[in-house]
Specification:
- With about 100 residues, the chain is an alpha+beta fold.
- It has helices spanning about 10-15, 55-65, 70, 95-100, and strands at about 1-5, 20-25, 35-40, 50.
- The protein is globular, with a radius of gyration of 14 Å.
Length: about 100
């Protein structure tokens, strides 16, 4: 998720305070199964991106609850921000992909 309104350091502190394993990294496309990360994002004016680890099932949805700490810390979104989700569609039929 791309966010503005707070600095990366504040996001790191807020997420660590609620138990998230989060790291500050340079921009990359490396997926992690173990930790969250903040990375710079040139498409976001005065902001950055927070990237979750690979999330699966109910436990993955539960991990998303830590993002409420970003809201509590003052993170916001503006017109330059976006959100994208990657879905592993291996084994899905064409119809199932259309439904997503």
């Amino acid at each position: 998720m791309e966010i503005v309104g707070i600095r990366r350091e504040k996001a790191l502190r807020a997420l660590r305070a609620v138990g998230a394993d989060i790291r500050e990294e340079n921009y990359n496309h490396t997926d992690s199964a173990s930790h969250w990360k903040t990375v710079p994002d040139g498409s976001v004016r005065n902001g950055f991106e927070v990237v979750s680890p690979i999330l699966e099932g109910e436990a993955g949805l539960e991990q998303l609850r830590v993002t409420a700490a970003l809201d509590d810390a003052g993170a916001t979104a503006d017109r330059s921000c976006g959100l994208h989700v990657h879905i592993d569609a291996h084994g899905f039929s064409t119809e199932e992909c259309r439904n997503i």
